[in-house]
Amino acid sequence: MGTNIFVLGLDELNHQALKKLPGAENYTFHQLLTFDELQGGSIAVNELLEEAERRLEDFDGSIDAIVGYWDFPVTAMVPILADRYGLPSANLKGIVTVEHKYWSRVEQQRVADEEVPGFGLIDLNDEEARLPEGVNYPAWIKPIKSTSSEGAYRVTDDAELQEAVAEEREVVDRMGGGFNEVLERLELPDEIAEIGGSAAMMEEEASGSMLTVEGFSYQGEVEVYGVIDSHTYEGTSNHACMVDLGLGREPQMPAQNGEFRTAATWFLRRFEDGYIKRVPTAEEVRAIEQKYPGTTIQIDKEADRPLSGDPAEDAYSFALAEIFTAGQSEEEMIETYEKVIEELNFEIEDL
C-alpha cells in the first residue's frame, strides 16, 4: 500500500491534485472525515477528534502522515492528531496564536505598532456597545475566531454598530465553542485566557494592497515561496509542501519546471442573494477545462436553492465557483479567466 497519508476533509478536486504530485505513485491518500462533517453546524472539535481517532484506530496499516488544507477546525486538529500518533506537524500554540484574531493583533503590535490598524475587544452582552478606545469608523466587527470572513460586518456609525452586534451574537458561537475546546489545551497569557473563544473584536478598516504570502516553516526556519494569489509555484502545487512537511521532509521547490509561468485561484462571486435555477453541468465544466489548458473549475453551489445559507461565507457575497487558471503571462491568465466565466452557465433569479 506504500505510504499512507490521511487528509482531513479530502475532496475529489484536491485528491486529483494530490495524485499528480511528484512521487505520488508511492502514496495512498485517505479521507479522514468529510468537509461537511468538519464544517456543518456548530463546530465541536473534541467530538471531531474522537471520531477521527476512532477511524484511524480502525485502519489496518501504517499511519505515516496526517495533513489538511482546509481552515479551522482542520488547522487545529492536524497538530493534535499528529502529536497523538507521533507524527511531524506544526506547533499547536503557534497556530492558535496567528488564528486568534485578537491575539495575533496583539503580537503584531509588539513588532510593528505603526502598521497595525486600531483594534480592541467589544462586549456582545452590552446593549449599548460602543467602539473600543483607539478605534475609529469605518471599522469591522468580527469574531476572534472565524474563517472566510464569516461573521464580519462593516460599520460606519453607532447605529450600524448596534445592528452588527445583534448579528454577531447569532453567529459567534458556531466556531467559538470549538475554538474554546482548543484553547483549553494550551497555557495562555492571562489577557488571552480570560477572553474565551466566543468573543468579538473591532478593527479599523485597513488600507493599502492586499497580498497573500505563502510559505512554510521547517525546523524553526521560515521560507516564503510565493506572494499574491498563488495556486501553484514553479510547477508544484502547495499540496507538495503539505505532504513533505507531513512526512517530516523539507519541501524542495523546483525552479522553472512548470508548464506555465503564472497561475491563480479566482473566486467567482455574486453580491446579492438569489435563487439558483441552474448551475453548469459536470460535462460543461469538463469541456471548458479541456478548452483552456491549465484550468480547473469547482462549482460551489447546487441548483434549486437560495444562494444564502451556507456556513463559512462572508455577509456580503456568495461563492459560485473556484476557478484555477494559468498562463505564460498575467495578461494571458486573466484573459483565460474572463473567457471561462463567460462560458459558465449559471441561472440565478433575483429575490
TrEMBL record:
Protein known as: ATP-grasp domain-containing protein
Organism: Nesterenkonia sedimenti
